[in-house]
Design brief:
The chain is mainly α. It contains 8 helices and 5 strands; from the N terminus they run αβααβαααβααββ. The chain has helices at about 5-10, 15-40, 50-65, 75-95, 95-100, 105-120, 130-140, 145-155, and strands at about 15, 70, 125-130, 160, 165-170. It has a 3-stranded antiparallel sheet. A hairpin with a 4-residue loop joins β4 (about 160) and β5 (about 165-170). α6 packs across α8 (about 145-155). The radius of gyration is 22 Å and the shape is elongated.
């Protein structure tokens, strides 16, 4: 078989079981991203969209085509999802996008917010997240900067969230 024949004659489609597997994975990824967003208090960094789902389908079909198969199987879907996770979801989970997009000014604002948070909340003390954000906003700080500072402090285990993220407890 030559490449031209493959390009023109081989158009793989998802098998029924591969389609179900993809549907299950899509729902699972969406749930995981929603859970992560709830834990961090920010929107999911890179939610899987219908467009991304379509890309995973096309990737599954392309993997089948590489093997000269007219049907994209569970194995093709599994590999396409693995590739998607390695590229897109790892970036979302690690917050890489957030760190890449930080300008020096934003990094400085976040540091200033951290200083104000530490001044406002003593070690072992607690405060409502909403109240803290409001107080720092009255000082001229942007809500999203304060939230990002809290997230960073939480990742460093300097603050802890209680009562469904409504209360912040300073640990260090």
């Amino acid at each position: 078989m030559n490449i031209l024949h493959i390009a023109t004659e081989c158009h793989p489609r998802l098998s029924e079981s591969a389609s179900k597997k993809l549907q299950t994975e899509y729902v699972s990824i969406r749930q995981n991203m929603r859970q992560q967003a709830n834990e961090t208090g920010e929107a999911a960094t890179i939610p899987i969209t219908v467009r991304q789902l379509e890309a995973v389908i096309r990737l599954s079909e392309a993997l089948a085509k590489m093997r000269l198969s007219h049907v994209a199987t569970d194995e093709h879907v599994k590999e396409a999802i693995r590739l998607f996770n390695v590229s897109t979801m790892d970036a979302a989970r690690s917050g890489v996008n957030q760190q890449i997009n930080l300008t020096p000014e934003m990094a400085n604002e976040i540091k200033q917010a951290e200083v104000q948070i530490k001044r406002r909340v003593g070690i072992g003390s607690h405060i409502s997240e909403r109240r803290l954000i409001d107080e720092l906003a009255r000082m001229g700080m942007n809500d999203s900067i304060v939230r990002r500072a809290l997230l960073i402090m939480h990742q460093r285990d300097e603050v802890e969230y209680k009562r469904e993220r409504r209360v912040i407890v300073r640990k260090v």
